[in-house]
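Researcher: I need the complex structure. Ligand is 5-amino-5-deoxy-1-O-phosphono-D-mannitol. Inputs:
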Amino acid sequence: EKGGYEYFMLKEIAEQPQAIADTLLGRLSDRGEIILDEVRLTDQDLRDVDKVFIVACGTSYHAGMVAKYAIEHWVRIPCEVELASEFRYRDPILDRSTLVIVISQSGETMDTLMALRHAKEQKARVLAICNTNGSTIPRESDAVLYTHGGPEIAVASTKAFLTQLVACYLIGLHLAQIRGVMYADEVAAVVEKLQATPDSLRTLLAGMEDVRALARDLKTASTILFIGRHVGFPVALEGALKLKELAYMHAEGFAAGELKHGPISLIDEGTPVVCVVPSPAGRGVMRDKVVSNIQEVRARGARTIVITEEGDDSVKAFADHLIVVPRTPTLLAPLMTTVPLQILACEIAAARGHDVDQPRNLAKSVTVE
Ligand code: M6R
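Model: Output:
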């Protein structure tokens, strides 16, 4: 049932290109328009939305963080992201024109379910992004967009994360389209790039041998730090979460710009720092900033593991280890840059002799608060 793979996690990582393609399937018209037929909110309801709140836990929360960048960029309405366990005990300001997007692979996460109920009590519209048909969260939501990732067995979320990203992108584009913020040809151009991601991901997955070797090297590190900016920031958080969860190692993700506000003092001779470099296309300034952050940590002794886009050769000089991913538009880049981090965590955990699919103290679905 593991399809020849040693762990479910590796199988699920390998299934990601197909999972993305399946999540996109049937959601695009011939003219490249986005059809969200499971969304039982009228176009008028969606036009009336003046604020989006995304609420989730763990990896699903990281998908929400990426979605915020996409939604604010494309739709031009305010979007906040919050951990479900925090949202629930606050007094967030919500009303009929607030769209609350809850993201959950299992659809049974108690914190997220409670946040959903909290939102509904205040009359907000709730849209669920979920991978499990008929689970509690989609049943209690006003509308659902199912991810078609297929069953995820490993406790660590991988293909669910990438398909959640795809669902978020679709919702963002749909909102932009019906609110008239993006022209049809602009939406179609993004959709075309989205449709190309499964193939790019297949190429990426075929070239991960180096990451495996690197994992064996890093298995005795006392900490691994991850830095990124913009959508690379949630990717850094996700890379650190995977490592904590599976390898039981100390790991932390930071917004690269925050380094000098504290975390840079953690850097010691040989401290591994994984750096997620934004694409030079479109967001060149941001990329340059990350490159100078890499130089800063390196000057303090860090061992840099740099994830960069194909063709961006100038970062080579600052990388002790370079991981190259296929080109993708900035907002879609997490579909690529997350994957080496999943493999890194999985392989480090395996090299340390841990049960990759069933890490200690964790359950696949957290049904208690
Ligand atoms: O089923 P959910 O998406 O609601 O689960 C949320 C988190 O518990 C989950 O993403 C968790 O962080 C994963 N084990 C991370 O790999």
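Model: Summary of the prediction. The chain has a mean pLDDT of 94.
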